[in-house]
Amino acid sequence: MKRMKLALLLSIILTFLSACSTENSSKEEVNSSGDHLKELTFLSNFPSETLDPHLNWTPLRAGMVETLVKMTEDLKLEPWLAEEWKSEDNGQTWIFKIRDDITFQNGNKLDGEAVKASLERNIQVSEAMKASLKIKSIRSEGQMVVIKTEQPLPQFPSELVHPNTAIIDVSESKIEQSPVGTGPFKVVSYEANSKLVLDKYQGYWDGKVQLDRATLTFNEDANARTLALQAGDADIVYRPAIESLETLATEQSNVITVVPSLRTHLLMYNMSNETLKDINVRKAFDALINRNEVVESIMAGQATVANGPFLPEFPFTPNYEVKSFGIDLAKKHLEAAGYEIKDGKALKDGKQLSLQLFTYSYRPELPLIAQLIQSNAKQIGINIEIQIVENIDEYLSQNSDWGLATYSLNTAPRGDASYFLNSAYMVGGALNPGHLKHDKLIEKINELNKTVDEGERNLIAKDAITIIDQERLHSFIVYPNNFAAYKNKVQNWNLSKSEFYVLTKDTGVK
What we know:
Strands 1, 8, 9, 10, 11, 12, 13, 14, 18, 19, 20 and 21 form a twelve-stranded mixed beta sheet that branches. Strands 4-5-7-6 form a four-stranded antiparallel beta sheet, covered by helices on one side. The chain has a three-stranded antiparallel beta sheet with strand order 15-16-17, with helices on one face. The protein has a domain at 263-481: Dipeptide-binding Protein, Domain 3 (Dipeptide-binding Protein, domain 3). Strand 18 (354-359), helix 11 (365-378) and strand 19 form a beta-alpha-beta unit. It starts with a helix and ends with a strand. The longest helix is centred in the first third of the chain and has 27 residues, at 2-28. The protein has helices at residues 2-28, 58-61, 112-125, 127-133, 156-159, 222-231, 245-249, 279-288, 291-298, 327-336, 365-378, 392-398, 418-425, 439-450, 454-471; strands at 39-44, 69-71, 77-79, 82-87, 93-98, 135-141, 144-149, 185-191, 195-200, 213-218, 236-238, 254-260, 263-269, 303-305, 340-342, 345-348, 351-352, 354-359, 383-388, 404-410, 474-487, 490-491, 508-509. By secondary structure, it is an alpha+beta fold.
């Protein structure tokens, strides 16, 4: 009898605990409106050491923050936090009117003073943005912000498309861990280079936010990203393994999307290296790179051959001279530089031509391109040592021992040539770790920076790019496609050409 009572009591306890568990589970599965939570997991190869929007692109990609100006998929500027702007002196003084119906995710109002404070912090913490924006002074009054630049900058509004110009509430602490912006999603938790959890911001200004929660995770291994999609551990996977795309497409639950990117894979030269100052040496390396082989063998067809920094459809892309490539041509350029190929070695003054080539695994095709260059260089007696580093930008900017680097760059993130030209070819530019200094090119870029008329700007940009091409200041290899795979339950998600806008208010799930 006692055993029966004990069994009955145990049964009642278990039933009660089960009910509590079920109740808690159901609470976790519904939102404040009583509907099932709409959430998804996005897995990418974007590492995030910080969430400071002025130093990292992740906050904009994740929909946490927004910029004054936005770029459409057809590369046109449109208002975002600023509803309009104008300049009355050919681009040195800019007046922006800030929307009047926006609050930060802490409830504070977005006004001119908040924008001013954010931009001032931006140029204080980021040397790259300070160099790009060239802000001399900022003043605000109500919803108006007046920015005066150090020189006329006709393209200034397009500079404000850059993710690092995102507007945040600088009165908040812990910006590196949980910045407060105006976007549709706010931070719940963050683990550097690992995981970011976001909840929707209920007071978002630009309409209903479809997702209740989003989780962003990171893995640099493309195969691991592919497996995560197949196992159901991720709903959207950015850049799964290239070779897996056909297999993923055969599974009915998957959707594959591919768009041309604004990115270019290229070979950088360190002009601090005396050897690489010789144009014939640069031409030799340029001739060693079989672009078609890279497209077909390394990129599995998910790229096109690059003739220069920009896609051919841009109005500032010039007509390039037809080039030839191959080992024999590379050998001729090397001999023109004074090298003698003897006993399998390229010798000059009795020394073999040897260089260190740096790359990074964040984009797995880049080490493969490095290996191709190394293999082809060996055929004409050049010794190449490949070094893989974790943070390529930091290494190249802080060290001088490198000679070459395979690199991937979004060359036209705002649909204009001046960003790349200023960053990569002006002294002190954020993308000029090789200390390039070409006086004629600098003169052209300065002329571009002062020109207002779009047609004239395109002609000047073409002249500048032609100089880059003729001098082989970089070797442009391929334009990679942007691709992703996602589950068919995901709704209203588009792959952005610019790679700026990943999660938006419209992203949802069935």
